Model the fold of this input.
Amino acid sequence: MENQYIIKGGNSLHGEVTISGAKNAALGILAAAIMADDTVVIDNLPDVRDINVLLETIQGIGATVNRINSHVVEINGSTISNFTIDSDSIRKIRASYYLLGALLGKYAKATVALPGGCDIGSRPIDQHLKGFRALGATVNIERGMIDTQAEHLAGNHIFLDVVSVGATINIMLASCMAEGRTVIENAAKEPHIVDVANFLNSMGADIKGAGTDKIRIKGVEKLHASEYSIIPDQIEAGTFMVAAAATKGNVLIKNVIPKHLEAISGKLIEIGATVEEFDDAIRVSASERLSHTQIKTLPYPGFPTDMQPQIATLLALSKGTSTVTESIFENRFKYVDELTRMGASIKVEGNVAIIEGVNELSGTSLSAPDLRAGAALVVAGLVADGYTTIDSIQYIERGYECFESKMNALGAVMEKIPVDDERAIQKFKLKVG
Ligand code: EPZ
Done:
């Protein structure tokens, strides 16, 4: 049964929240884990839908997957017997493409359904395929399947035409057991690239330079057992930072790497919020209406596109005129119509949203267009006057673990109820008054 969120807005968030492991790092790491023939233990795994789909898929091709608990999994890739991946669920997630790189790198062959993921614009994978070909693989796309194979994978010098997180990780996967040296130039520098590289190195790979735009990989013969803990999720942390500021609250966000949040912290400070950094926590507070700014999304260390809808929601409630330029994905403003229905004043021209801050938003029925936009609508609902319902929350559940319970522990008033269940809505309203 499909669920929706119902939110009663108007409460400031206060208290402490603990951030889960990084979804986008975990997706690369789970794919990488199948490349060893020993047992690999992965900790701090976020318990979210995309991760669970990828784990089922890995199990489906014969790997041994032992879920110790919701945050720890043991994977052994020695039992893999199937190199074709095609299921309805895998078609819905983006990271299915990492199984191409991992299987190609380990077995020199893979056939995987074309990736899905959030509909935020055209999402080509030409750079991934260019990388595989440069390593000596053939790549064919037929009837929605990508088929890649190689007689022999050999390192090469690969210059990415666009800075791509997915292509950088995929080429690391495909090349870490190839013969000789691979260099990836114009590589993405996101924290999750470094995390996947660190994990591969913990299994015996030889990858240097991750986190810079030039990654050097020396092929090794095989990968071995490892125990690894995934970094905290930069975007989940950023979402709680924005929610704290938008509700004029005061929240200590724990289990974060403050360095990864600098672009977000910088903008929050610029518009008047208070941000205090600790070793592995960050406190965000605001006591009055914040100010306006200009933001442009950029690859790391720039402002992350995955935080664009959330910060735009905050700016929709701030003083003055802000602009938000989306330079990574072409269709990431679909939430604007929803915010407008709540009373926001936002005009989209090409890849720029021009935001005239309003004093308040009013609750209404909304639909989450994608993962981060869905999270932004939750933030809007927390601030809005009255009740907000948000359907299509399966998008939000792709990437936020226990979103409603983490929010409620901070003083939010929201619940997950079945869609179209008028009685559940009335019951919620009676309960919260
Ligand atoms: C990853 O997507 C993330 N997904 C996205 O997170 C995130 O928004 C994005 O990186 C940017 O940070 C996963 O990690 C599973 P890209 P990805 O390749 O790898 C163009 C979320 O909300 N491009 O870095 O698909 C592309 O069109 C999701 O958690 C090519 O032209 O992003 C885009 O304009 C949404 N050819 C730009 O590069 C290629 O071969 C960056 O894309 C690949 C990408």
